[in-house]
């Protein structure tokens, strides 16, 4: 796949680079383009990796819900890399791949539960500028997820905004990870944004 990033990937070298390459290739089969771009500033890359690693250990909110929320943000922001990787991640983690493939068109898809729809609506409302989260939506989710789950979901959506907006600004696009998945990833109609 040809790079579209506005900053070309740096050579992933040194002891840290060897570790990153080994881990990436074991997990994904290749080094993700964002790693090469962020390798220009290793402290930033290390922070991103550390935050991501710690967030993966959170367990107060269902993994499918967090995955759908992240992908809803990616679809709204237009981060093809995060959508592609998010779907691949759902596939690899044994999450609901059929539903994950439909996140970009969740409003018109009939595969989601009311809770899942609320989660994706919340993710989109948080992503709006300014945010458009309503008391009603927040209360519905709080009743179903509890305080710890709601804090986790909210922080997951905030992190999704960090990752998606950074990738879009730097021109990082899909690497084709989702080609390993059973279903084709649905595409949002540009006019529906």
From TrEMBL:
Q: Which InterPro entries does the record associate with it?
A: AhpD-like, CMD-like
Protein name listed in UniProt? Transposase
Which part of the chain is the Carboxymuconolactone decarboxylase-like domain? 44-125
Q: Spell out the Gene3D superfamilies in the cross-references.
A: AhpD-like
Organism of derivation: uncultured Nocardioidaceae bacterium
Name the lineage: Bacteria, Bacillati, Actinomycetota, Actinomycetes, Propionibacteriales
List the GO molecular function terms. peroxiredoxin activity
Q: PANTHER family of this UniProt entry?
A: 4-CARBOXYMUCONOLACTONE DECARBOXYLASE FAMILY PROTEIN (AFU_ORTHOLOGUE AFUA_6G11590), CYTOPLASMIC PROTEIN
